[in-house]
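Lab notebook, bench 4. The sequencing result for the construct came back, and we need a structural model before the next group meeting so we can plan mutations. Quick request posted to the team channel:

Model the 3D structure of this chain.
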Amino acid sequence: MKLGSRDAAGFVARPDLTKSGLLIHGAAPARIALRRKTLVEAVMGPDGEAEMRLTRLSGADLRSDPASLVDALKATGFFPGQRLVWVEEATDGTAKAFAAALEEWRPGDAFLLATAGQLTARSALRKLFEGSKEAYALAIYADPPSRDEVEGMLTKAGVRNLDPDALRDVMTLSQTLDAGDFAQTVEKLALYKLGDDSPVTPLDLIAVAPVVTEAAVDDAIGAMANGGEPGIGRQMSRLGAQGTGPTTLCISATRHFRQLHAAASSGGRPDEALGRLRPPVFGPRRDAMAAQIRSWGAPRLERALKELMDTDLALRSSSAAPQMALLERAFIRIAMMRPR
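Done. Here's the predicted structure in token form:
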């Protein structure tokens, strides 16, 4: 039987053990791994693997010894409790072994889990599970998780008290991070708030989210975008002492102003437009950039981008002018464009 995406989360978390098994397939290995981990824990409990109630086979094992799957399903474990047989890297070449196993399966046998890569609609393995009345097939796609899935992950990790802004930022992260990175971020957030009953805030999320930018570079660009030209020289001197090159800094500034311009040109509220960018902007940085968009406006942002692109060309030319000084003057000119 096909297991629809709407029912998938519920079945994986609370599997029907009166059925023989489940095939999980798709082109998103990280998401398949998360589903598999949840299902294994739900079937056997936290101590299942330690109690040797999990049997792992591979597609290669079945091709060389098709009967090993039936044997594994029928085997009796040393410890009491539900057993599970997991076949990884299943392929159409193993379909006959799975057909025999599903036919031989009886209540009380181990639960069968198969994981596979992307299978077409004509796949023999996929047709076998989808056509069975006693087993399920679940296709996993690379789509971002739904709100229900995200809230389920947070609840399972023990993160239950989020303020509305933090929940919005978590949803933003879930749409852009790969499934494995997002799951790790949720686990880090749970550890970060362990023993702390106060609501999760955007600042908590920033503390555990993957770092994508240098804080000192952000400070220099923020000083320019906020019109604080007196502080630009100090920030750039510090960056130069740390070894940050002027070309790298110019590229980062150009990226920042392109994000501002893209959000300013998309219509709607600036904070919502920033959340739609890829990668999105969230937390206090989003609030600061939203204020910059409202202050600058699209026409001034275009002028700032032109100044940055001209400066980038000058930095890459054969000019003998001191590059950091050249960039500092450009930053000051841009800061002075911001309305007072």
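Residues 5-140 form a domain with the Rossmann fold fold (CATH 3.40.50.300).
Will bring this to the meeting.
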